[in-house]
Amino acid sequence: MGYISALPLYGQSLAIAEKLGDIGGVANSQGQIGKLLMDQNKFEEAVPYIISAYHIFEKIGSPNVRIVARWLHQIKEQIGEKKVGDIFKKLGLV
Predict the structure, then answer these.
(1) 30-44 burial, b for 16+ CB within 10 Å, e for fewer?
(2) Are the C-beta atoms of 27 and 62 separated by less than 8 Å?
(3) Contacts of 48 (CB under 8 A, 6+ apart)
(4) Rounded Cα distance, 71 and 26, in Å
(5) 28 and 52 in contact (C-beta within 8 Å)?
(6) Distances from the Cα of 57 to the Cαs of 27, 41, 51, in angstroms?
(7) From CA 70, how far away is CA 75, in angstroms rounded?
(8) pTM of the full predicted structure?
(9) pLDDT at 5
(10) Separation CA 6–CA 59 (nearest Å)
(11) What SS3 state is found at 63?
């Protein structure tokens, strides 16, 4: 499955999880959307999804929090701390 066909499916998965109130499913879908965008070097688009997934995983005590934290670290390594800081500022996170 290519990136183009995967993104709408992850979007559908996110919508279903939200409708069902499945918070873990929401985090999983957001994380997968973020990772997909990250793999396409769309870091500015990826970060909000990954941050949201991180916060949900942390809140529910999921071990997946380590995975999305690693993705954030990888983004920082690829684009630099300043650029990540700029993205966080743009999102109102700092």
Answers:
(1) bbbbbbbbbeeeebb
(2) yes
(3) 34, 91
(4) 17
(5) no
(6) 7, 23, 10
(7) 9
(8) 0.90
(9) 80
(10) 27
(11) coil
Structure confidence at residue 94 (pLDDT) = 78
The crossing angle, in degrees rounded to 10, of helices 65-79 and 23-39 is: 20
Q: pLDDT for 7-21, tens place per residue?
A: 899 999 999 999 999
Length of the chain: 94
| CA angle 10–11–15, rounded 5-degree value | 115
Tokens 């650029």: give the residue: 83
Nearest to 53 by CA among 74, 32, 75, 30: 30
Token readout for 16 is 């279903």
Packing angle, helices 23-39 and 43-60, rounded to 10: 150
Q: What is the 3-state secondary structure (H, E, C) of 82-93?
A: HHHHHHHHHCCC
At 29, list the tokens: 């879908």
